[in-house]
Specification:
This protein is of the alpha+beta class and 347 residues long. Helix 6 packs across helix 7 and helix 9 packs antiparallel against helix 10. The relative contact order is 0.08. The strands form two sheets. It has a five-stranded antiparallel beta sheet with strand order 4-3-2-1-5. A hairpin with a 2-residue loop joins strand 1 and strand 2. The longest helix has 35 residues. The protein is 56% helix and 16% strand. The chain folds into four domains: 93 residues; 50 residues, SH3 type barrels (Roll), CATH 2.30.30.60; 112 residues, Alpha-Beta Plaits; 59 residues. Belongs to the MscS (TC 1.A.23) family. It is a multi-pass membrane protein. Keywords: Cell inner membrane, Cell membrane, Ion channel, Ion transport, Membrane, Transmembrane, Transmembrane helix, Transport.
Amino acid sequence: MRDFSQLAIDTGLALIPFIFTLVCSVFALVLSHKLLFRDKSLNASAKFPRQLSLALVYFVAIIALIISLPVEKETKNQVLGLLGILLSGVIAFSSTALVSNIMSGLVMRITKPFRTGDFIRVGDFFGRVTERSIFDTEIQTEQRELIAFTNSYLLTQPLQVVRSSGTIISANLSLGYDLHHSKIEKLLVSAAENAGLKEPFMQIIELGDFSISYRISGLLEEVKSLISARSRLLAQVLDTLHNANIEIVSPGFINQRRMDDKPPVIAKPPYVHKIDNANEANPEDLIFDKAEAAEKQEFVEQTLSEQIKYLQTQVKQADQVHKERFQKQLEIKLLKLEKLKQDKKTQ
């Protein structure tokens, strides 16, 4: 009987480190859940790094429990070795591309080379960003096609991003040596101004055997109209030069018709007008419909999240009279954010 009692006491004493570690692990996990996910307004992108942090806490807790087990040292080493084999198996059987995409996604979330709604060019593809995830990035092209790039591909390729503050729009053309460049510069600058571009400038980019190559450029402040702005610039270059009686044809142009000293080959418009940029329909509204909707949705979601954080602070600091009012506003904002997320899932 005495031996049995002594054995029970020894077993109890041996279990104390394990029980203490178990209690501490449970406390740490509960505290981590509350600290990492106390903000219910977090979107999927914001939750991912917190989920990784929580997974790390779980892993550390499991290691601590194994080390505190009341068993022989060799048994602990065997359990730890088994855990290592399981982790190695998971990594070995996981796709290398999958791991690479996850790491690339993390890098891009840290560096933030672009955001939803931005124009980007990757290789031969150009479009607006519609979705960003930890595995891939989706863009919508000028043909309304949706193309998904893996994050590892984006990280290893030259990436061009159109700045949201404005971008340079350009048009190239060739004219003969019989036209002085100062006259051409005035006309091309005027065309760029009529197209709605700011601070236009002309460049002579090449002196060819038969013609001079010009480039007219200007700043487009509203980048969402990038596609239509390029078309406007080309149309204005045509109208401005033709109205000045300047041909835009190859120096080797040959027309088989008998001209009889007729005027130059210039298409005469029925009337001359300056394009009204304000009333002009933008094809971008149709081309980049998903990208535009995604950008607006992300903006609304970020705005709601900021308002929710502010209201949560006010609820904690306000007195009882104002606390109820802030609490009602907070509940309304949370419902709006939840509905927004549900709508996003069903799209």
